[in-house]
Amino acid sequence: MVAGVVMISLFTGSLASTLTRNQMTVGVSEYNDLANVSIGVVEGENPMSLVRNKGLSAAGYSSLSDALFALSERKVTTVVHDEPVIRHWLRKHPQQAGSIGLADFYLRKEDYGIAVSKPKLSSERNELLDRINLALVRLKSSGRYDEILHRYLGNQRN
Q1: At what angle do helices 64-72 and 83-92 cross, to 10 degrees?
Q2: Residue 158 belongs to a domain
């Protein structure tokens, strides 16, 4: 099946592979520091390939919860994962949030998209695509988009 992809840059600046680190651990402030620390990643997720493609080794965990619990228990020094997902997890697990902090740099920024199937005839418009685009424009222009991000992800870095 061929799918048309609409790239939405609404998440630019907020969706990134980022680092979490133990609040008590000093020494992870830039990319080069990663060679000297133990890294945790979620097996099969994008950040795992990012870390390994940069020539770094990492311990694999079956879930973000497992990786972040390992971090809070100091089994690893840092965890690489998508920042919004980490922020959401920290909001849902405040007891661990006090011992985990986000590093001040990104490894890679990413845009996310929504895929919808193309119409059968190239001359036809895709109503679903039009409705998605309109809803996104309305959410963004009304300020509701930012409210949703803040509600679920907290303060965002730009």
Answers
A1: 70
A2: no
